[in-house]
Amino acid sequence: MSNGAGKFFGGLLIGTAIGAVAGILFAPKSGKETRRALRSSAQDLPRLAEELGSNVQYQADRFTEQAQRTIDETVIRLQEALATGQEASRKLQEELAMSVGNSAGASMMEIGDRSRNRAIIDEDEE
């Protein structure tokens, strides 16, 4: 999951340890019994720390997998968008080429017509 989950479990571990120690110290027991309870709690700390580490590792792995899926999906979307943009650009280039070709043809026809008209006018003036 997120960093918040790791902080939560870290706080849970620390709170459990502090609560256990406080409960043992303030319990109405003999010194021998208190030492035995403290020893038992101290022996549980490595197990709790290992569980916390495993949980944090599990959450980090899940986060990494989710991030990788998101990256992969984003790359696919970008590739699709790029292909769509390239296709649109190609179509616009074709349309522009046709438009320029048609305009050039029309301009050449106009020039030809003007030249003929000019020649006719010149003949009439002679």
What does the model show?
It is a single chain. It is rod-shaped, with a radius of gyration of 42 Å. It has helices at residues 3-26, 31-125. Helices cover 94% and strands 0% of the residues. The longest helix is centred in the middle third of the chain and has 95 residues, at 31-125. By secondary structure, the chain is mostly helical. The protein starts with a helix and ends with a helix.
- Portion of residues in beta strands equals under 5%
Mean pLDDT over all positions: 78
Helix content bin = over 70%
Secondary structure tally: strands = 0
Summed up, the domain count is 1
Largest sheet: none
How does the overall form come out from the CA principal axes?
rod-shaped
Poorly predicted runs of 5 or more residues: none
Amino- and carboxy-terminal Cα gap? 96 Å
> How many helical elements?
2
**Radius of gyration, in angstroms, nearest whole number:** 42 Å
Structural class: mainly alpha
Query: What does the oligomeric state look like here?
Result: single chain
What's the order of the H and E elements?
Answer: HH
Task: Give short descriptive properties of this protein.
126 residues, mainly alpha, 2 helices
Spell out the blueprint of helices and strands:
Blueprint lengths: L2 H24 L4 H95 L1
